[in-house]
Design a protein that fits this description.
alpha+beta, 4-stranded antiparallel β-sheet, two-stranded antiparallel sheet, 3 helices, 33% helix, 26% strand
């Protein structure tokens, strides 16, 4: 079970929801330096805050980044992803003119696809067993 400080509350719900996101660069090109990644984390942290989400963890390499995001049930992951990728691409292009050479085709930094996986909590087998063991009304 989640630690007590991680449990968040909404108007009508109590929740702990995390998603692991992975974004790769267009054509999997090696694009990012440490300076790019440091600024990208700041940008993505700000976008998450706009969605009432928390960027719990961020890391990346030259061709991809990983994010662990704590998010409320009202946030659609696809909308969060679109904003994270769009805002980061636009701001990085403005702030780092050296990235322009990586936008040579289709003016895109990111691949159109992404990975999203739920994270945290108990394994599905444990949850399934818990639900199966609940008393049924007679």
């Amino acid at each position: 079970m989640a630690e007590m400080q991680e449990i968040r509350t909404g108007r009508h719900c109590v929740f702990v929801m995390h998603v692991h996101l992975v974004f790769v660069t267009k054509f999997r090109h090696d694009v990012f330096t440490d300076d790019h990644l440091v600024r990208m984390e700041e940008i993505m942290r700000s976008v998450c805050a706009d969605f009432e989400c928390e960027l719990v963890e961020f890391n990346g390499e030259t061709s991809h980044v990983h994010l662990l995001v704590n998010f409320p049930p009202k946030v659609a992951v696809a909308k969060l992803v679109n904003s994270l990728k769009g805002v980061s691409s636009r701001r990085l292009r403005q702030e780092f003119p050296d990235l322009v050479r990586h936008y040579w085709r289709a003016s895109k930094l990111w691949s159109g696809s992404y990975f999203a996986g739920t994270g945290g909590g108990a394994p599905l087998s444990v949850i399934r067993q818990y639900v199966e063991q609940q008393n049924r009304p007679v």
